[in-house]
Amino acid sequence: MTDDAPVARPAVRWIVVAVVTVAIVAVAFAIGRFTAFGATAAPTYPSTTSADAGFARDMQVHHTQAVLMAMEIYRKTDDDELRTLSYDIATAQAGQRGEMFGWLVQWGLPQSSPQPLMTWMQASGAHSHGDTSAYTQDELLAQMGMATDAELDQLRSLEGRPADCLFLSLMIRHHQGAIPMAQAVIELGDEPRVAEVAQAIITGQSAEIDAMRDIQSRLACGA
After folding, report:
1. Can you give the residue range of the structural domain that contains 10?
2. What's the CATH code of the domain at 170?
3. Does pLDDT of 39 surpass 70?
């Protein structure tokens, strides 16, 4: 029996070595997989000069005025259809504006940029406004379909049908300025959620333009 004992010990040692080697290889493989997974899962965010960031900033400015105008007419109109439409515009655009604010926070980017409005659109062949540095701020706002301070003051001062008709005229123009911005970010941007919201803007605001034109006809605006 004593002669057999030394023969068993090397076999046991080799088994232990094999088990340890397999364990080391398994741990190394797991670490490698974890590292690779972590590298591929790390998010990549838009830069501050990207179309996604520019759209988020400019559309917040755009939506802010739309909410202001919609709540003004909602407060004083006697037209039930227009009151419902203005409420829908205000709530939808307030929600989108909040989401756009959140995008920039998530991406670690400032809410404003020293670049002129719509600079991010210059690479779009279909929706470019050219060299935006050549325009004043008021000219850029006009190209976005924004109402002037004088038009906003007039909207606040009017009541009844004149107020309704002015609101419809201003908001149709406002929506017409938003749609090319949404189309441009779909063309130029990289963020799927930004493109999704932009498409919702195109679809929703196109339908609202049709609805507002119907109300204009019913109220005989411009007659």
Report:
1. 1-42
2. 1.20.1260.10
3. no
Torsion of CA 182, 188, 192, 194, to 10 degrees: -40
- The pair of structure tokens assigned to 125 is 């062949």
Q: Looking at the structure, do residues 18 and 96 belong to the same domain, yes or no?
A: no
Q: Let me know whether 35 and 59 are in one domain.
A: no
Q: Residue 195 contacts by C-beta under 8 Å, 6 or more apart in sequence?
A: 185, 186, 189
Mean pLDDT, the chain, whole residue set: 86
Which pLDDT score is estimated for 129? 63
Same domain for 31 and 60, yes or no, is no
Query: What one-letter code names the amino acid at 97?
Result: R
Q: What are phi and psi of 43, to 5 degrees?
A: -70, 145
> For 125-178, what is each residue's pLDDT tens digit?
766 666 777 889 999 999 999 999 999 999 999 999 999 999 999 999 999 999
| Cα separation values, 181 from 58, 127, 143, Å | 9, 7, 11
Who has greater pLDDT, 95 or 41? 95
| Residue 202 near residue 182, CB atoms below 8 Å | yes
84 phi, psi to nearest 5 deg: -65, -45
Report the predicted TM-score, pTM, of the whole model to 2 decimal places: 0.80
Number of domains, the chain: 2
Cα 198 to chain centroid, rounded: 7
Do 97 and 27 lie in a common domain? no
Q: Do 100 and 210 sit in the same domain of this protein?
A: yes
pLDDT value for 126? 63
Q: Are 23 and 131 found together in one domain?
A: no
83 and 184 assigned to the same domain: yes
